[in-house]
Known about the structure:
By secondary structure, this protein is α+β, with helices and mostly antiparallel strands. 37% of the residues lie in helices and 22% in strands. The chain is built from 5 helices and 3 strands; from the N terminus they run αβααβααβ.
Amino acid sequence: QAAAMARLRQQGPRLAIATLLDGTFAEWKAAHERMGLQDGVLPFMTEAALHQLCTQTGLQYDVETLLASYPQAMDFVRALKGIGAGTPRTGHHPAPLGKVLRQFPDGITVSYRVAYVLSA
């Protein structure tokens, strides 16, 4: 990843990237874990790994947690597919979606851990 960042940085005077970090969709993951299941969301980079990468490449970063609320949990599932995040991790066997969704009778608020990476 450091090599890829270095190549991107060479393509122009400024580099700006936004990416999701581990902890994104924690509420969705917790709902699966309460049922003894694993969610299918692909893993995200940890903040520690991002810190190391930015240290190696001379980049700066900032992290914030954004919350998004969906009136029905199924709206969140649709939103995932809408942003192209519908591809599950390798070897994932779909959970009984109805059971997971029933844990959110009043909708769902999910966390997005967003990292903003900038060149100096």
